[in-house]
Design brief:
65 residues, 2 helices, rod-shaped, mainly alpha
Amino acid sequence: MSEENAQMSADPIPPAIPAPAQVGTEGSGRRSNKGVWIRAFIYVIGFHVFAGFVMLLFYAGSHRH
C-alpha cells in the first residue's frame, strides 16, 4: 500500500452538522394543520361567493332587454 493511500484512509470523516431543533417552533405540529384547514375552508367559501357573483352577472345579463 502506498503512502498516499494509507494517509487517505487515515483521514477522519468530518462530523455531520446537527439538524436544528424544531420543538416548539412556529408552524409545526397540530396547530399548523389546523391553520391549513381553516385557510382551505376560507378559500372554498370565497370561491363559492365569487362563483355565485359570476352566476348573478350571467342571470342579470340574460334578462336585460
